[in-house]
Amino acid sequence: MSKGLGNYWKTIVHDHTPRYLKLLEAHSKGAHSLRRKFATSVWSQAIHRYATQGEVEEAVDLFRRIIKLGGYPVSQAPASLLISLTKTSLPLPVLPKDWQGAPRKVFNMEPAYPPQGTSSADLFIVPANVAERARIVAEIGLAMLYSMLRRELWPTTYFYCVLFSVLGNACMDSELKHIFSRVMPFAIRAMPAKFRIRPELMSSPTVWTMAIKAAVNCGCRPLAEHWFKEYRMSAIICHNA
């Protein structure tokens, strides 16, 4: 997929993978878990590739398939799809929630539901204007974050940067402040030690930059200045340590 050889990887995604999933179901013990893990791995990479190419409908279809199998897209897939939704003029997708029963608060984050259409049968939402489109995309991003955290699929800094950007575009300053100041630090502290050594899962100057930029886009200059001073102070402490 990284080579961009569409004729080859699309065949693997749409032809070989479904056939292999059927074989697993017929001949393997613990087939459902194996099917979910295999499909999540392959289709997550395909979601990333489709999204970066602007093929949003294909990416959304695979996103829904993974959730239907009981999994959730991993790696760069959620962030890449979220970015593609900010760039397309197509109707926005209705993504299914990936849990059954009553939702629960996780890592200081209240349950965030994927935006729905006017009917339960709607697969897409047509925003009335630019502001509504930005809000719906931001709500999709919050629902993605909630789904990942409740499954302990630790979001990457790449995803947080994309999420802060869409929250800034939607002027959702309270959500931005809560995610950056409360949810993200709490989730990072809750990670098992083996994950905390991975740089792509930890806070970074890029994350601070995107959070500060998003605060400016929200019109919250005092918040942006506060975070800038806080970052400078943390950088000085780390340098002198």
Q: What does this 3D model show about the protein?
A:
- The protein is mainly alpha-helical and 241 residues long.
- It has 10 helices and 2 strands.
- It has a two-stranded antiparallel ribbon with strand order 1-2.
- The protein is globular and about 55 Å long.
- It starts with 5 loop residues before the first helix and ends with a helix.
In short:
This protein has 10 helices and 2 strands; from the N terminus they run H-H-H-H-E-E-H-H-H-H-H-H. The protein has helices at residues 6-27, 31-52, 56-68, 77-87, 130-150, 157-169, 173-190, 193-196, 205-217, 221-240, and strands spanning 92-93, 124-125.
**What is the N-to-C succession of helices and strands?**
HHHHEEHHHHHH
Report on the biggest sheet. Answer: 2 strands, antiparallel
- What is the CA-atom radius of gyration, in angstroms? 19 Å
Biggest β-sheet: strands ordered side by side in the sheet: 1-2
Could you name the ranges where pLDDT drops below 50 across 5 or more consecutive residues? none
Tell me the strand percentage band: under 5%
Mean pLDDT: 86
Number of strands: 2
**Helical element count?**
10
**Whole-Å distance between the termini?**
43 Å
Anisotropy-based shape? globular
Q: Specify the helix fraction band.
A: 55-70%
Helix-strand makeup class: mainly alpha
